Amino acid sequence: MLRSIALWLEERLHLTKLFESTAGHKVPPSTNSWFYVFGSGTLLCFVLQIVTGTCLAFVYVPSTSQAWTSLQYLNNEQFLGWFLRAVHNWGSIFMVAIMSLHLVQTFLFGAYKYPRELTWVSGCVLFLCTLGMAFTGQILRFDQDAYWGLGIGASIMGRVPFMGARLVHLMLAGSTIASETLSRFFSLHVFVVPGMIIALLSLHLRLVLTKGINEYPKPGSVVRKESYATEYEAMVEKTGVPFVPNVIGKDLIFSGFLIVAIVTCAFVFGPQGPSGPSGPPNPTLIHTAPKPDFYFLPIYAILALLPAYMETFLLLVAPVFALAILILLPFYSGTGEKSYRRRPIAVLVVLLGSSNSRAARLSWDIRAMVSAHGGVERRSHARRIREREVGS
Amino acid sequence: MSGTDQKSDCGCKKLAPTEDPSASGMSRRNLLLKVGAGLNGIAAALIGVPVLGYVLSSFTKGSRNSWISLGSLDRFPEGETRLAVYRNPITKPWDGDTAEVPCWVRRIDSEKFQVFAINCTHLGCPVRWFQESRLFMCPCHGGAFYEDGSHASGPPPRGLFEYQHKIDSGELKVLGGHLPTLAEPL
Predict the structure, then answer these.
(1) Please, which pLDDT band fits residue B20 given cuts at 50, 70 and 90?
(2) CB contact under 8 A, A283 and B102
(3) Which of A143, A160, A163, A168 should we substitute to test contact with B (largest number of B Cβ atoms within 10 Å)?
(4) What is the pTM of this model?
(5) How far does the CA of residue A149 sit from the closest CA of chain B (Å)?
């Protein structure tokens, strides 16, 4: 009976052919490595976010007067609402973390080189979209941090020359932070950015199939445009193994641990916010010190340390340059050595990038700690200004 | 080749083969394709232009400021700086508390006032007034401003945003209605 159903479906859907060209496609045996599990891990997080996010949207009210109350309802009244909020929050944290590891791994393994330029570009845009999801999600947790986070976003936008004011209006859906602003961010978080992610993900996975997955790089094995594609195809033809069932095992184990880790964090730490004991965000309650979620904390911390004349450049121009350097990487470094063992500058870039963000984060933590201890900083700040006045 | 009918071997009528479509430059299929694409282009514009207009309406619209009362002058003692709150002139019924806007009012003497936006000129965080040091300070990145709103220290690129104000029928009024930023101060 089952066999006849399977045959009936096979005849109509050509499932065997579909399997052979997708999950069962041949990959280099060297990719059966623990370093190759981060892509599927990120995908799993994304699926988890869609499932939990859809459930949360059943209850959440994207209105400035009701959002906070509906989140409180989710936390305290809705059956397992707190758990789904917690999983959604921790899923986003793990998604950003695992995606960062995926980015670093593909960078260090030279996976962006010929002929996988478009795979890299689509991956970089996916990374940006994920950060966009993190920012818009933080806004939907409509508390004091979210409200003033919008103000910070608007202030950064207001630094754009010539059209700054108009961009602020576009971002806020008006001239102030109000109900339409939250609706706009809800729409971006729930429809626009996820739609972009699904489209880009389809392209990304399609490219993984058409151009093949990057082989584990060997030191001394150099990419040449004239010969790489032929050599890769011959290698896969000769020694390749089907991704399912030969290689997927490590991905499944990693994904299993990932789910356990997310669920454990959700159970132990619970959902995040909405913070503030005083109720929905109220701009008139000014005794608040807004700070972003950890993804943006290094950038936020750096802004306390920069001289004023550098800020607009570093807020508006530097990110464009940094993104251009990242996205265009395969176009100016598309051939040559792949292995990180022969690319010391690549390793140095990763080490410097991670240590810089840690240093910025640390400086913020120290500053916050000092501020928390009786406003020492505030008093010393005032004293310094007074002394300067007296001196002049 | 003419379009006249011919007799086949079996004696039945046979239509004459048509001319090679590519030779005529515009076959029926090509014509349909082009008309179809053109119609779809028009349809896309009919939907796309209103959608773009809808989405970008906030981009093209400017701010609409108006005079808003902060209350009677008695609320602001001379020589002091007090927090005042007004309701945004343009609100939606579901705006909730976000329609409330705070600002700092400094009364210098009986007729002389300064009204500052709450937003730090660095990144828009709410600045607080410290009576003892007579400074406005920002909790986000340590920006500080003197009591007259001018920049004292820290990363802000300029002094506090200052509202235009007037005294009308014993009330202090400010010209407001948008979030102040470096691109569009008050």
Answers:
(1) low
(2) yes
(3) A168
(4) 0.87
(5) 8
